[in-house]
Structure of Glutamine--fructose-6-phosphate aminotransferase [isomerizing]:
Amino acid sequence: MCGIVGASAQRDVEPILLEGLRRLEYRGYDSAGLALVHDGGLDRTRAVGKVQALADRLAEAPRPGTLGIAHTRWATHGGVSEANAHPHVSTDRIAVVHNGIIENFEPLRARLVDEGYEFTSQTDTEVIAHLVESHLGDSDDLAGAVRATVNELHGAYALAVVCRDAPQTLVATRSGSPLVLGVGIGEHFVASDVAALLPVTRNFVYLEEGDLVIMTPARFDILDGEGQAVEREVKETGLSISATEKGNYRHFMLKEIYEQPRALAETWQGRVSTDDIFASSISAEAKTLLEGVDAIHIVACGTSHHAGLVARYWLESMARIPCNVELASEYRYRDPVVPKNCLFVTLSQSGETADTLAALRYAKSLGTGDGGYLATLAICNKPETSLTRESDLVLMTHAGPEIGVASTKAFTTQLLCLLLLTGMLERDAADRRALAGDIHRVADAVERVLELDDAIRKLAEEFVDKDHALFLGRGPMYPIAMEGALKLKEISYLHAEAYAAGELKHGPLALVDEKMPVIAVAPKNDWLEKVKSNLQEVRARGGKLYVFADAEAGLDTGPGITVLDMPHVEETLAPIAYTVPLQLLAYHVAVAKGTDVDQPRNLAKSVTVE
Ligand code: G6P
């Protein structure tokens, strides 16, 4: 969701900015643009659609300039149009790119209009450009003007600003939206994400809330929210360029589905021995802290929320700890009752989801005494994010960079981390040992499921002309059915809903006829016989069933029912293993329908606005 790249160098930066934008495409966007400072002027180019459309426009006449800012926009205020695309400029002197939402832009806009500024877009961002211009006045203190501007803003922002009169200086600042500073040799960069700058540097400063950076090719200075000069550590990233590229795969999503066995292995290794699961792998104090946990609240959005819903079954049935799971966008606006010794857990692949972050901040605001939480734990796939920095404890999912907007390996590694957490809270040593044994087999289980890929590709052809689909599951497989429906919706634009199979007769059965495909997940567990009865209810109404079932479940393909035999997996691993065929199904349906698999319409990978 909105991507920023900026550079101050001693070479032309247009190719660096364009490559950076390409590497941010995965975040989701609908238009792109860049501005270069050159020869005492600002040169702005924007285009609706893909970064390639911007690149095509620039290819007609490559622009010189050693200082520049660029942006991919995901529309919030104002429709998708070239006029609303960033950068926004003021009096051909100031150019700004912005990620986030300025909540008080309307009164600011009215004031600026009174002052004579002319607006050419419907965005909230344009006020920033004019405010910087008005604060700059006759001075040459661009950083001071940016600071004065952000002091007037309410809302979330990451900003990069350049001025025609300062041909080497880029000023950037953040509050509530991510921004990293890339440190090169004789050149400096900013971006929303490390991945954008990997071709030009491996050294980064992760800017903190309120930080403002002033950079030229020769140096950078950081001021904190109080305006005081601060030193921030420059860290070398472990991320490789190849990890952020498609390789031989047609889509990132398929690559990421296939990376799951390795991602899962990397997530448990070092945390689980042959007979135990170690809380100390989180941190030294985590072990003592987890011993005092009597309840858990899990808060997340989207796919991450589905992982939380599965964990509730595990935490209650195995560790016997009461667990409540809630959407962050709901949780943050109600007045939750916090039980004693309750651990607050957030789940997020990006670590920057605005609602999840706001929920964490709310949870922390309750303090640690009566009515507050014992501690906060973030389960996250990205290091150095707002969520990981602001949580007491962090359990990383080592999935590696996930570029496809539809989350796959981040989800299954979240599930594994939640299984690890369950094991850490499990007080019975024999049960912990059994769980540790299961976890050792997770990568192998997923590897075997991937062998069904061809069969699922063929199956997907039957969905291409469908408009709707129902997904069914019971127990911990119910949230997996929800995740399967979400994947299909996200990338193939097919309307899909998930139901706990026992709920079928309470409404959705009315939808079932020969045009309604019904997909069910049926591993061998305590719910299997109940699920089979629910499937009979569908068959009796002429519904077409597609069942991913344990090879030993006793279900066979026949009239109206197609059964795909899943390899037998341990009950605890079933939610992870059965997610994979649903990911593959959504992927192949989307490919067959010709949709944009990795960047589905209207969606963003990192949702940094409310
Ligand atoms: C976006 C992504 C989803 C993700 C959700 C929550 O909508 O497209 O894939 O599940 O945000 O993101 P998070 O980073 O907090 O897991």
The pocket of 6-O-phosphono-alpha-D-glucopyranose is lined by residues 301-304, 348-350, 353, 356, 405, 407, 603, 605, 607 (CB under 6 Å). The mean pLDDT is 94. The chain is about 35% helix and 25% strand.
